[in-house]
Amino acid sequence: xxxxxxxxxxxxxxxxxxxxxxxxxxxxxxxxxxxxxxxxxxxxxxxxxxxxxxxxxxxxxxxxxxxxxxxxxxxxxxxxxxxxxxxxxxxxxxxxxxxxxxxxxxxxxxxxxxxxxxxxxxxxxxxxxxxxxxxxxxxxxxxxxxxxxxxxxxxxxxxxxxxxxxxxxxxxxxxxxxxxxxxxxxxxxxxxxxxxxxxxxxxxxxxxxxxxxxxxxxxxxxxxxxxxxxxxxxxxxxxxxxxxxxxxxxxxxxxxxxxxxxxxxxxxxxxxxxxxxxxxxxxxxxxxxxxxxxxxxxxxxxxxxxxxxxxxxxxxxxxxxxxxxxxxxxxxxxxxxxxxxxxxxxxxxxxxxxxxxxxxxxxxxxxxxxxxxxxxxxxxxxxxxxxxxxxxxxxxxxxxxxxxxxxxxxxxxxxxxxxxxxxxxxxxxxx
Length: 431
What we know:
By secondary structure, this protein is an alpha+beta fold. The chain has three domains: 6-215, Beta-Lactamase, CATH 3.30.450; 223-278; 287-429, Histidine kinase-like ATPase, C-terminal domain (Heat Shock Protein 90). It has eleven helices and 13 strands. A hairpin with a 3-residue loop joins β12 and β13. The N and C termini lie far apart (68 Å). The model has no long low-confidence stretch (mean pLDDT 80).
């Protein structure tokens, strides 16, 4: 009889996998140059999925071709001047679409009917993922030839996609760090540019710091996603089954609907963390009604508003057209929730104004809360910056708001009178 039962073995394997993922994230976060980052990342990922062949290609500055940067399991003559064009083979396919894929059998996959795999491949299965920051392609990572001879799975593709986002973030961090070092070197010889270079250096140091924080969010988000998604899916499924069977008991049905609403909020928290870590946002194919988005945002804090006896005044113009859905509701929900939490005493007030002018949606949200400490107006959009107690927030809400406003090519700024009020101004172009 074995030392572990099957369930215990599965749990132990999952814990080992999480430990390896954590080690990979820690490793890429300490890389000091591009070569070490790519080479060590590829080695660790191949070890994690049990592969014997892998490669990382980076996009050339002209944005047309991808050039091999590092490879394991390829012969030296195969590596020389290896270049892939957009749309060519598996790597070009992933680069063009900016989406990860898993290939079960390259010989029978209709997406690659013109692709001829090298005879040196041991297995016909591949996983491949893009290295992306926001919508900017940096490169592609390709893994094949499982040592066991088995095919890759969708879960392994998703794992590769998550780790590729960490590589991309740290690649950007290294780029910024190299640029920062170059500026420091310039300041030593160009004294007349010292003031300007020092300011650029400070800005770059700040960007590096922010990207390091975003990489930390990525590690946190990945762990939460893996830990929460399966149990959340199970609880949601059984809640829906209960709703199907409870037809007449309106009280119990109401309780179940509240449970479902809470589960959806938990799922959105995980989604927001992942979106923030990878700078991903909706693509805006759909459009959203401002009034409906506002009402849903207010509904999320309805209990707190009633409990604190807060008056909500709305001044919404009637001519607001549908707007691209890049996250408008998340902007409103985060700012309104902050306003509610800032009001400490009874009978506070939140005023929401919105209207269109010159093809721009202007939003103004004012509260009579405690305000923002003097000098902190710019810092509130930085990851993890918060003045709230630990049980009220971790400092990601306004970071997400800032990223969404950027996606709209909009503007956001805040005015605050400490101890009296805070006003957020958001301008979102309609076109």
